[in-house]
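For this section, I looked closely at the sequence of one protein beside the tokens encoding its backbone, which the following lines show:
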Amino acid sequence: MGSDMFDNWFLETVAGRYVADQERSFFNRFTICDDLQVAVQAGMGSWLKQPDEWLCNARDFHMKAGVWAWADESVDMLLMPHTLECSGFPLGALAEAYRVLKPEGRVVLTGFNPYSLWGYSKWFDGRLLPDKKDCLPLSALKENAKTLGFEIAFGQFMVYVPPFNCQWLLRLCSFMEPAGNRWWPHTAAVYGLVLHKHIIGMRILPEYEHTFQNNHEMALGMAKIKNSSG
């Protein structure tokens, strides 16, 4: 399904707006990026709004998550709000994220937990929300992320209320949020992860980064010396 359809669910339904509020808090916590960095948001630009300096799929360009046209190691920070399950090929989209991310770059993502109350609701029909089969369990996502080379920097569960599309019912069940976070975190409707692409080896200090970018031979020569001595 297209992320634009998914955007509408977050904007136009009571349940969607409830989830969006909690996810915004998560993304805002981890999306600090300076002006010299390349930051890309892969969809959901209508409800998850980032600064204008961020590039956003569907707003500034159109790409499928599994076949991004970004060059290898060209992006510093990548936001993926439900991008994996919207792609129709979640593991391929995760591999593309690793490819385009620079060393020491980060991915901040959210996904629906298929083993929650929400996972067994009518929402996951391929129209309102993605098919349940496209929603990765957190354990599978973490395992594949580590296989690709990601380090897991942070994780968070959110949204413990039942999948009600009624404001007063959601308010009535608000006690489940703190209770769920304490007693049954793995049944949350949504999980968030921060993945770090850490590369072992030489790391250029920020004050010398511009010099190395303009002198590729010097950086390559140092790498060859290091490899030959190892």
In short: The longest helix spans residues 14-29. Residues 211-230 have pLDDT under 50 and may be disordered. The radius of gyration is 19 Å.
